[in-house]
Write a structure and sequence with these properties.
The protein is built from two helices and nine strands; from the N terminus they run H-E-E-E-H-E-E-E-E-E-E. By secondary structure, it is mainly beta.
């Protein structure tokens, strides 16, 4: 462990396991993707199926650099499903699709590397 504050390393503050469990991250299958030209930054409107317990939810995702709408349909992704909906322009985003930046800061989706059931919870 370092002796400096976590923020100097870019790390978030320590949280408890219960706090981690409060963030509900689930597997979803993208069922449709379409351009969102009204967004301030290039984005897609996604419809994502999280299985029978959660159903379909919508999200606005800034993933246009590495992905095209046609290749997104059917793809498994991870998303936070228990944040409150957020208005993104004229679009209501219901879940936060998870990704990490590449070297240029463009989003790379977080995806299961094996088949997983929509609705399965990250643990």
């Amino acid at each position: 462990m370092s002796d400096g504050p976590a923020s100097k390393k870019g790390l978030a503050a320590c949280i408890s396991f219960d706090q981690f469990l409060a963030v509900d991250i689930r597997v979803g299958r993208i069922i449709s993707a379409e351009p969102y030209p009204e967004a301030r930054k290039p984005a897609y409107k996604l419809a994502i199926d999280f299985g029978p317990g959660i159903g379909s939810k919508r999200s606005s995702a800034q993933i246009t650099h590495h992905y095209h709408c046609e290749e997104l349909t059917g793809r498994l992704i991870l998303a936070v499903v228990n944040f409150p909906p957020r208005q993104i322009g004229k679009f209501m985003s219901e879940v936060l699709v998870l990704g990490v930046p590449d070297e240029a800061g463009e989003v790379i989706l977080i995806e299961p590397n094996k088949a997983a059931l929509p609705g399965a919870r990250l643990f």
